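Weekly structure sync, notes
Attendees: PL, DS, HV (note-taker this week)

Item 1: Bis(5'-nucleosyl)-tetraphosphatase [asymmetrical]
DS walked through the input record. Source organism listed as Notechis scutatus. Sequence as pasted into the shared doc:
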Amino acid sequence: MGVEVQLCETCSYFFPQQNCLDSKSIMSLRACGLIIFRRLPKACATAATDGRIEYLLLQTSYGTHHWTPPKGHVDPGEDDLGTALRETQEEAGLASSQFTILEGFKKELNYVVRGKPKTVVYWLAELKDRDTAIQLSSEHQAFRWLTLSEACRLAEYEDMQGTLREAHLFLSSKE
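Item 1 (cont.): predicted structure, written out as C-alpha cells:
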C-alpha cells in the first residue's frame, strides 16, 4: 500500500497528500541530494568521454521535465544528509550501500522558485558497481548516464552546470 502523493504547485515537488505545503506555510524551501557518478573502464576513457566519469541525471515527470541529480525536500526532523540518502533511494532506487559519499565535496545552491527562496545542498557519491540498475520513481520519467559535457547540456540551469563542473574538477584533483 503506497502513500498517496500530489504535486505541490508552489514548489513543484511531490508531497504526501495530507502534508502538502502551500505558499502560506513555506518561508523558504530546502532540498538535498547526491550527484551520483560512475567510472568507466579505462579502455572506454577518451577525451570525448571527459575521461572516464559519467553522471546520473533524472528527468522529472512534471513541470518543464528538467534534468537533475536525485534530490528532494527535507522532511521535518530530518537532517540534510539523511534527506539526500532518502531521496536517492526513493527517486533512483539506490541504497546507501551501493555508493560511497566522497569527503570534501559539499555544494550549496541558492535561488528563487516561484518567488520563494530555495536552498539545495549536494554531496558527491561514487556508485560502487557501475552496472547497478536505476529504478525510477513516479516523479521521474527517464534517466541518463552522461559525460560532464553532456550533463551540462541537459542541465539547463547555470548553477547546476557550475556545480557539475565543480564536482568534476574535484574528482580530477583526486586522480
